[in-house]
Amino acid sequence: MSSGSNGSLPRYILTRLLLVIPMMWVLLTMVFVLLRVAPGDPVTAAVGDKLSPEALEARRNALGLNRPLIVQYLEYLGDVARLDFGSTISDGRPVLDIIKNQGGATLTLTAGAFVIALLIGLPLGRIAGRRRDTVLDAGIRIFGVVTYAAPIFWVGIMFVLFVIKFFPGWPTFGIASAETEYYVQNRTGIILLDAMLANDSVSVVDILKHHVLPCFALGLLLSGVIIRLVRVNVIQTMKGDYVEAARARGIPEGQVIRKHAFRNALVPVITVIGLQFALILGGAILTEKTFNWPGLGNELVEYITARDYIAVQGLVTFFALAVVLVSVLVDVLNALIDPRVRY
Amino acid sequence: MSTAAQPHLPDSETVLGVRDLRVWYGTERGPVRAVDGVSFDLRKGEILGLVGESGCGKSTLGRGLLGLLPEGSARDGELLFRGLDMVQLKQREQYALRGASLGMIFQEPLTRLNPLMRVSEHFSETLKTHEKGITKAEIEHRSLEALRVMGIPPTRFRAYPHEFSGGMRQRLMIALTLVLRPAFVVADEPTTALDVLVEAQIVRILHDLRETYETSLLLITHNLGIIAEACDRVAVMYAGKIVEIGDAREVFTRPQHSYTRELLRSTISLSTTGLNFIAGAPPDLTDPPPGCHFHPRCPDAMAICATREPRLRTLPTGATAACWHAELAQGVTELDDAARAPLQKEEISVADEA
Amino acid sequence: MPTFVRTIWNTKGLARYIFVAGVALTLVFVAFAIFAPWIAPYEFAQNSVDGVRFPKSGPASSDHLLGTNDQFYDIFSRVVWGARTALEVVVMSVVLSAVIGVPLGLVSGFVGGWADRIMVFLMDALYSFPSLLLAIVFSFLLQDKIGGGIVAAALSLTAIYIPQYFRVVRNTTVSAREATYVEAARAIGAPPVTIMRKYLFGNVVQSVPVIGTLNAADALSTLAALGFLGLGIQPTEASEWGYDLSRALDDAQAGDFSPAFWPGLAIILLVTGLTLVGEGLNETLNPSLRRRRLQNVTLPPRETEAA
Q: Which of A25, A290, C72, C297 is such that its CA lies 20 to 30 A from the CA of A173?
């Protein structure tokens, strides 16, 4: 319940959502220009070598690619508004289906990675900020830099090698063993959830085991970013005036760090972490390829290799929308935490 | 000759005795002698004003009393409080004193409260730190009482800091500092960031503190008007040292030290017809001038002023100042002709004044 | 010493060492890049010598310091030549981004009004787009047009970093512009253009190198990622570490770590080096993070009072 704050939360959310529309429009236009206009003829690119010129022409007509660009553009916007992301050229499959089927895997991967990144990054960043310029700080910072510098696919490969040597039998690719995939019914599209809903503990354990390596690899990458962010913010807040005032009131140093410096340092961190969703997405694509993870990232790569422009367009559009939505969520979260943020 | 003395009134209890306090900062170029041997007493319920130009060390002195010093600084001397020398205390003991016995009111109220914490949370944190086992009801009772004294309605108790204006935030800070009833409070330029009307209110509040709380107050400011209005005694500080200290009215009407005199002359009031200023600029505290720090700018400087530093002495008139000229004028010290000769000073170029 | 060197040297704590370490690491790879023909025993796409094929996925030996990969290439040579590729692409793309972003920011900040607001909006949208995705899209496009070489890769990366330069320069220009109105009103004397130039130059010089090096680190990561996905530079055009890692996937599942380890290590070291340079610069030049090196204070003993 707000206590006399000078704006209201519902109004903030509404305003923020409205602001999303121009941003989405710009992104969608960008995607359209890059993936429809620039390449020229998607059909030829995708299946040019497999069909005769007449068949190609027929395909083009069927897909409506010979109409004026403006018309195609407007239709694209309209489709997206109805959550229709097109259908692949190669096999006519609706992209929305792909998203529904494979999206769950990407979701659990990114969520797990995010949790691990926070668990590693927040405490380490705080220690580094607090004990600035000590050996501990140096060590943590180097750790942060190196985890960010190490390509996720390299880290993944190293994990695989390590596990093969020391924990033979631990799963190193895919999201579930063939058995699990066979037994778990597809209800929500998220295999982990499905297994839990079916009370199938053996499958759940199996799926979680498969999650360990990829989530840890991706989480490690993210933690580097988080460490750096938290550290800088803790340093800045510790210089704050209210921190000195708290000390003047005799609040013990540990509590000053915890309640005043650290908590306040988290506020800008939350926003920036949310913005890292773009980073997470990129990382997820690479992780999925490394571990042969059946998610959207893997699909994207396959369709790119197949030069299926419409599929790529559909998937990239979806990703762009996801990024925008996450940024809205983050802003709302920020408003919930920081009472100064209101419209 | 009388010894360097502190004004003493035997029937008032001394809350704080400061002896030879030195606070030096470390910088890239060498130590800055921000506070260079300051001694005074603070009595119970007394309001002592500390006045001086920017950079004379008064803020440092205030912080030095509480031990709130930045990295690379060193503190030395004696701070006698309730029989203890605070300088010698261990960290934890110092922390325990801070807040409960020593309070501080800062200059810029806008940034001194944690924006993520409600006012009520600020109070409960402070009270719980120093009084273990205090109940929630007690916390609320005392906080609201402190707020009431400051004129803040209880309906604002659960509000956030950003919902208050600057003046109200300063009152919040004062309430927060005083809820623990500290024995003495340092107020570091509490009204500099506020507009004149609010300033008057705050000054009144500070002045009335001793009635409500019996708190001693060290009021640091560069505004002579506030001193005149609110303070019992005043200490004038220059270049890290106290040059004059005494009853406020006395010092203002019969200043003994040349600096005090010049300071008063440069104050602008309704009767000002011409602008006065003190030529030159405050000295570089990494390398202050020898002898009396003020001698390069002093219109009454004598040869001795550049070689020997005068000590704070109580003069026959009752004032206390550190000035050869004043001592000479009141027959306290005998100086030979060589020492008495007016000082040849270098022309202070315009550039130095900038 | 020039002022900024002195500023860096006078900073307390680790920042100096971070900076120096980063520079050292980077220079190692610059040396690799420049002197590749002399350091690497073989060409980057060489898979035989005198008609004798190299072994496939061979172990380390005197002929092949780090072994060979599954395309019969010598790993050590690929790593060394890879430095040249990496630096060429990264430098090209960062310079291009700056060359486009900085003037755009200047113009936009100067002109103001609707044009400026639209540009800011566009740049923000571009900035919020996942950078890898953007790179993928661009390289997807460019590969069809101009093949899979170094220039294509560099161009794919350019667009990602433009918004950062744009933003910094535009914001600085806008503040400088507003500051000059105030200055002019106070009639200080120097013409507004001079003030603006001084202010702009100072601020831009402070932030662009930091942004540039951090972008370079990111560009290298992205380049490797593209290579890993098969969208980067083709092995016959140049040696690229990310691509080599994609080939090493299968080797890894079989337990052979050499083809994956060395190119990956190279990426880590160079990206770390560049990042350290950027962070070191930031910590030493950025006034809000800087800490001066203070000399410790020792107080001389108290003088006893004279009678």
A: C72
